[in-house]
C-alpha cells in the first residue's frame, strides 16, 4: 500500500504578516496532483490542519475545497486533530464525511478503533491518535499523573490490544501529533511541555509498522518506521534551511517500509542575513537573497538611521529586522531579551528566586514551580478547547 504522509498545514496562518492562503492553496493543488500522479492508495494528515481553534473563513473554505478534491479522487484520507486545532470543530460531521472516504479522527476515546483499508496483500489498520493534552485526557486513559508519555503509552496499549485481535498479517499505521525524542524543533511550534518534559521516546510506538508523526515542522526520520513529514510551508525564519516535503511511503506485504520525499512548492525563498548595515547593503555575495523573504540582524554598535527603509531598497521583501549589537556576554548594555534567550520559563523562574533571596530553589520548590507552569498551560488548553 502506498501512503502519502503530510501534516501541519496550519491553514490560515500568516508569515510575518504576509498572508499565506494562496501558497496554502497551491500546496493543496500539489497534494492532489501528487496523489494522482504517484498512484497513492491513502493520504494521512497528522494534525494541525488549522492554525488556531477558530480559523478564519478563508482557511475553512480552503479546507472544504481540499476535502472535496480528495473525495473526488476516490483515495481514502485519514486525518487527526493537532494541538492547534479545535478537535470538536474539526470533527463536526465526521460520521457523514466518513462515507466519502475522509476519515476524521479527533476523539481520544476512539484511538483504538482503526480505519481499515485493504490492498492485494490484506488489511491495513490506520489508528488515529489526535493530540492528547495530558490534563484533559488523563481520566479517559486512567493515568495517575498527567504527562505526554503516560497518555500516549495508554493510547498505544489500546492500539496494540485491538491489533492483537485482528487477523494475522494485518499491517498497521499510527497517526500521532507529538514531540518525539530525537526530533528537532523550530521557532514556529507551540510549546506543549508538561511536567518539564515535552518529548516522548519513540519506543512508545513499538509494535506497529509505520508511525506518521505531526507537530514538528522539519521533515525528519526518527527511525525507519517513525517519521515526521514536517509542515509543507515555512512558518518561521528558523525554517530557512528546511526542505519542505511530504513522505511517499510504500508498505509492503510483510510490513517493510520504504519512503521517499516529495518536495512541496516554495512560494518564496527565506534568507537570514547578519552583520553591520553597510556591509549588508554592499556585499555582492548577498545578491542571491534580493528576491527572498529576509530576516536581517544588524550588529552595528549603534542603531543606524532608517535601517528598514535602507534595507528594503536592496531587499524589498525584508520582513523582520533584529538589532543585536555585538557585545560581550557580561556587557551591562546587553538586552534583557538577549540574556533570557534559549531559557525556559522554569529556568527563568528559578533564576528569579536565586536573585531575590540569594539561593536557588530546592527540589521541592522546583516541583511547585513546575506544577504551577503546568497548571497555567492546562488552563490555556481548556480555554482553547472551549472557544
From TrEMBL:
| Nuclease SbcCD subunit D C-terminal domain mapped to chain residues | 267-355
**What keywords sit in the KW lines?**
DNA recombination, DNA replication, Endonuclease, Exonuclease, Hydrolase, Nuclease
The alphabetized list of GO BP terms reads: DNA recombination; DNA replication
Tell me where on the tree of life, at the top rank, the source sits: Bacteria
InterPro entries, per this entry?
Calcineurin-like_PHP, DNA_Repair-Maintenance_Comp, Metallo-depent_PP-like, Mre11_N, SbcD, SbcD_C
Is Transit peptide given among the entry's keywords? no
Q: Where is the Calcineurin-like phosphoesterase domain?
A: 1-218
Tell me the GO molecular function terms. Answer: 3'-5' exonuclease activity; endonuclease activity
Give the matching Pfam families. Answer: Metallophos, SbcD_C
The family note in this entry says:
Belongs to the SbcD family.
PANTHER family hit by this protein: COMPONENT OF ATP-DEPENDENT DSDNA EXONUCLEASE, NUCLEASE SBCCD SUBUNIT D
**Reported function:** SbcCD cleaves DNA hairpin structures. These structures can inhibit DNA replication and are intermediates in certain DNA recombination reactions. The complex acts as a 3'->5' double strand exonuclease that can open hairpins. It also has a 5' single-strand endonuclease activity.
Quaternary state and partners of this protein?
Heterodimer of SbcC and SbcD.
The name under which this protein is listed is Nuclease SbcCD subunit D
What is the organism field in this record?
A: Streptomyces adustus
Upper classification of the organism: Bacteria, Bacillati, Actinomycetota, Actinomycetes, Kitasatosporales
- The encoding gene is sbcD
Amino acid at each position: 500500500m502506498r501512503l502519502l504522509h503530510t501534516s501541519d498545514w496550519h491553514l490560515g496562518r500568516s508569515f510575518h504578516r504576509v498572508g499565506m492562503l494562496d501558497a496554502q492553496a497551491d500546496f493543496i493543488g500539489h497534494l492532489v496532483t501528487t496523489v494522482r500522479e504517484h498512484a497513492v492508495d491513502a493520504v494521512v494528515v497528522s494534525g494541525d490542519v488549522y492554525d488556531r481553534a477558530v480559523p478564519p473563513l478563508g482557511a475553512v473554505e480552503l479546507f472544504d475545497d481540499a476535502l472535496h478534491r480528495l473525495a473526488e479522487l476516490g483515495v481514502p484520507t485519514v486525518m487527526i486533530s493537532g494541538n492547534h486545532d479545535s478537535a470538536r470543530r474539526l470533527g463536526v460531521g465526521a460520521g457523514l464525511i466518513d462515507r466519502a472516504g475522509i476519515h476524521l479522527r479527533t476523539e481520544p476515546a476512539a484511538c483504538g478503533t482503526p480505519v481499515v483499508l485493504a490492498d492485494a496483500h490484506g488489511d491495513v489498520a490506520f489508528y488515529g491518535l489526535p493530540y492528547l493534552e495530558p490534563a484533559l485526557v488523563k481520566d479517559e486513559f486512567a493515568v495517575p499523573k498527567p504527562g505526554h508519555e503516560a497518555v500516549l503509552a495508554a493510547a498505544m496499549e489500546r492500539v496494540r490490544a485491538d491489533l492483537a485481535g485482528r487477523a494475522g498479517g494485518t499491517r498497521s499505521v499510527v497517526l500521532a501529533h507529538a514531540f518525539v525524542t530525537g526530533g528537532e524543533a523550530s521557532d514556529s511550534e507551540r510549546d506543549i511541555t508538561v511536567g518539564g518534559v515535552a518529548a516522548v521516546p519513540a519506543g512508545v510506538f513499538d509494535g506497529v509498522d509505520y508511525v506518521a508523526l505531526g507537530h514538528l515542522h522539519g521533515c525528519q526520520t526518527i527511525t525507519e518506521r517513525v517519521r515526521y513529514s514536517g509542515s509543507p510551508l515555512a512558518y518561521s525564519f528558523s525554517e530557512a534551511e528546511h526542505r519542505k516535503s511530504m513522505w511517499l511511503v510504500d508498505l509492503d506485504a510483510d510490513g517493510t517500509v520504504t519512503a521517499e520525499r516529495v518536495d512541496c512548492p516554495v512560494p518564496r525563498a527565506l534568507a537570514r542575513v547578519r552583520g553591520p548595515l553597510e556591509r549588508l547593503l554592499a556585499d555582492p555575495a548577498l545578491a542571491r537573497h534580493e528576491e527572498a523573504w529576509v530576516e536581517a540582524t544588524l550588529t552595528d554598535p549603534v542603531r543606524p538611521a532608517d535601517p528598514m527603509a535602507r534595507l528594503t531598497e536592496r531587499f524589498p521583501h525584508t520582513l523582520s529586522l533584529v538589532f543585536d549589537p555585538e557585545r560581550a556576554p557580561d556587557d551591562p548594555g546587553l538586552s534583557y531579551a538577549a540574556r533570557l534567550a534559549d531559557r525556559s520559563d522554569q529556568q527563568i523562574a528559578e533564576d528569579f528566586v536565586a536573585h531575590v533571596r540569594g539561593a536557588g530553589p530546592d527540589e521541592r520548590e522546583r516541583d511547585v514551580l513546575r506544577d504551577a507552569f503546568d497548571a497555567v498551560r492546562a488552563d490555556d488548553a481548556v480555554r482553547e478547547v472551549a472557544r
